[in-house]
């Protein structure tokens, strides 16, 4: 058990006596050099963490005792590490080079991955070149991507982040919510003659996705299209070819999904078709290559200089030794504004677990709440809680050094805000410093002391700073893979399965049961009193 490991108790005792970060910086002029590294086009400054050399030694010792390196290799080798679903976990294979061989059940899966990528490339070329025509002979101008969960969020966030690389003749709209307003608002923006719908559902039966797709088809048929025209405007990423062809799609335009890729790790597969359509296959390959480079770093770098490992171990440190309940991701680039939501799903769906791999109850915190947004906006809102609240909230700051939109002093001010916030979190402000700032004011001594107390910030709030030269497909691929592997490290250390999601499945099951009751001809009387009453109130409003 993790909490009974000797290093665990050593870490607990060590953390209790660790000096304030101010003191750690004052004691070591080379702290930044010792606690920063570059990999795969990314630079990580982790010097503003509650750690010294002994902390790091203990964390790496704990990782070795938990056989982290062996667990990393097991994932890359295609071993069945998703033990509850008896599946390999091989999203990394989607980034593999053609000369690699990766076996699943004795079959090399790399050729199939490359065949799918070639099929995607052919399709992307047909659409973006104008060769693909709608039912009236017009070229495609809009993509409507319909999915949910990982089939929606990954492609949406990546296309948003890579907006400077978009094909200027295309627009893309994402639909996930089964709320009809979401779909209707998108359909008002597009023309049925020039719109291509990309439906992503492994079973071709995911409730929200199928409902949205059927409604989109009805809209298409009501606005000039015919059943024979459906194949020109609808394609699918699915394992259920029969259902997709029955819908009206051409079998040649149905792209595969695999059991060894979880939804939240699937943007690198044909689920990423909307990405490829928007930025082109060359840029999509660059996205894969950036992630592949991070894969190789994660697999080969020693733990002590391994970027995902270091970030994952710090997350464990704060969750388990400082009772941090959340972790904030702050992006200092408008194109990356959606990234915290993507990392939220990645981490919380993976590590929101309360039993270990063998089914035992965990004896420690697991996945923290991940949240965040654009850094400069947050500075005028929730940063107050980070700086002066009672809860410890570790933070990641992400900044490209070069902007895609250079304009006057905007980017230098953006960078000054980013670096200033990390400095403020680390050093804080003492009472004496706050009092000195009030010297020369018209306040009397009593009010000065009162205001000074309100201006005190304890500091010692941990953060990582991640820099890249510029936001490109390659650097974005490396960044997302960094967080994928950081999530893996946490789960491996906690001995939980980061690759199933039974909580999500329960919600789906109960939702379907409630749907049956909402549509029944008799009152729902078999559930709890609250659910029964809510169902009957809804039914009464629709009589």
Mean pLDDT over all positions: 95
- The portion of residues forming beta strands comes to 5-15%
Q: Kindly report how far apart the N and C termini lie.
A: 56 Å
**Poorly predicted ranges (pLDDT <50, ≥5 residues)?**
none
Biggest sheet: strands side by side, in what order? 1-2-13-12-10-11
The count of helical stretches stands at 22
Number of strands: 13
Shape, please? globular
Structure write-up:
48% of the residues lie in helices and 11% in strands. Helix 9 links the parallel strand 7 and strand 8. 41% of the residues are buried. It has 22 helices and 13 strands. It is globular. It is of the alpha/beta class. The chain has helices at 6-16, 21-27, 31-34, 53-65, 68-76, 110-128, 150-161, 180-187, 207-222, 241-247, 273-279, 281-300, 307-321, 339-351, 375-379, 383-388, 410-427, 431-437, 445-455, 473-494, 502-518, 529-541, and strands at residues 36-39, 42-45, 103-104, 107-108, 142-146, 171-175, 195-200, 234-237, 254-255, 326-331, 369-374, 395-402, 463-470. It starts with 5 loop residues before the first helix and ends with a helix. Helix 7 packs parallel to helix 11 (273-279), helix 11 (273-279) packs across helix 12 and helix 18 crosses helix 19.
């Amino acid at each position: 058990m993790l909490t009974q490991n000797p290093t665990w108790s050593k870490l607990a005792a060590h953390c209790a006596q660790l000096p304030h970060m101010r003191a750690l910086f004052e004691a070591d002029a080379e702290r930044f050099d010792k606690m920063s590294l570059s990999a795969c086009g990314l630079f990580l400054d982790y010097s503003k963490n509650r750690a010294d050399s002994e902390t790091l030694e203990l964390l790496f010792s704990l990782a070795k005792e938990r056989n982290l390196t062996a667990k990393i290799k097991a994932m890359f080798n295609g071993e069945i590490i998703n033990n509850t679903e008896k599946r390999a976990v091989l999203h990394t294979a989607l980034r593999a080079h053609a000369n690699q061989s990766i076996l699943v059940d004795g079959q090399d899966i790399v050729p199939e991955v490359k065949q799918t990528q070639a099929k995607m490339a052919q399709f992307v070329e047909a659409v973006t070149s104008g060769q693909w025509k709608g039912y009236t002979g017009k070229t495609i101008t809009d993509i409507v991507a319909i999915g949910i969960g990982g089939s929606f969020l990954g492609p949406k966030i990546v296309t948003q982040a890579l907006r400077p690389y978009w094909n200027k003749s295309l627009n893309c709209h994402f639909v996930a919510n089964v709320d009809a307003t979401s779909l209707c608002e998108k359909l008002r923006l597009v023309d049925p003659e020039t719109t291509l719908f990309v439906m992503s559902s492994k079973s071709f039966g995911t409730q929200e996705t199928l409902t949205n797709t059927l409604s989109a088809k009805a809209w298409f048929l009501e606005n000039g299209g015919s059943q024979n025209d459906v194949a020109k405007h609808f394609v699918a990423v699915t394992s259920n070819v029969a259902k997709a062809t029955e819908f009206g799609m051409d079998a040649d335009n149905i792209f595969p999904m695999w059991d060894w890729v979880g939804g939240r790790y699937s943007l690198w597969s044909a689920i990423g078709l909307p990405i490829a359509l928007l930025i082109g296959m060359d840029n999509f390959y660059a996205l894969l290559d950036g992630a592949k480079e991070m894969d190789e770093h994660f697999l080969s770098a020693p733990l002590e200089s391994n970027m995902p490992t270091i970030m994952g171990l710090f997350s464990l440190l704060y969750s388990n030794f400082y009772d941090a309940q959340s972790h904030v991701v702050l992006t200092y680039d408008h194109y990356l504004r959606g990234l915290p939501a993507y990392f939220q799903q990645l981490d919380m769906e993976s590590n929101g677990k309360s039993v270990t791999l063998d089914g035992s109850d965990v004896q420690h915190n697991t996945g923290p709440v991940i949240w965040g947004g654009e850094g400069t906006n947050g500075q005028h809102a929730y940063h107050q809680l980070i700086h002066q609240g009672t809860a410890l909230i570790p933070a990641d700051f992400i900044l490209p050094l070069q902007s895609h939109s250079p304009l006057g002093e905007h980017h230098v001010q953006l960078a000054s805000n980013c670096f200033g916030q990390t400095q403020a979190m680390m050093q804080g402000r003492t009472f004496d410093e706050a009092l000195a700032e009030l010297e020369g004011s018209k306040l009397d001594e009593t009010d000065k002391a009162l205001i000074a107390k309100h201006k005190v910030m304890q500091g010692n709030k941990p953060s990582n700073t991640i820099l890249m030269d510029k936001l490109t497909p390659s650097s974005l691929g490396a960044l997302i893979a960094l967080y994928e592997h950081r999530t893996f490290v946490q789960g491996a250390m906690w001995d939980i399965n980061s690759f199933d999601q039974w909580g999500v499945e329960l919600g789906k099951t109960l939702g379907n049961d409630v749907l049956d009751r909402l549509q029944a001809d008799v009152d729902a009387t078999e559930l709890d009193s609250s659910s029964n009453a809510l169902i009957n109130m809804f039914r009464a409003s629709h009589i």
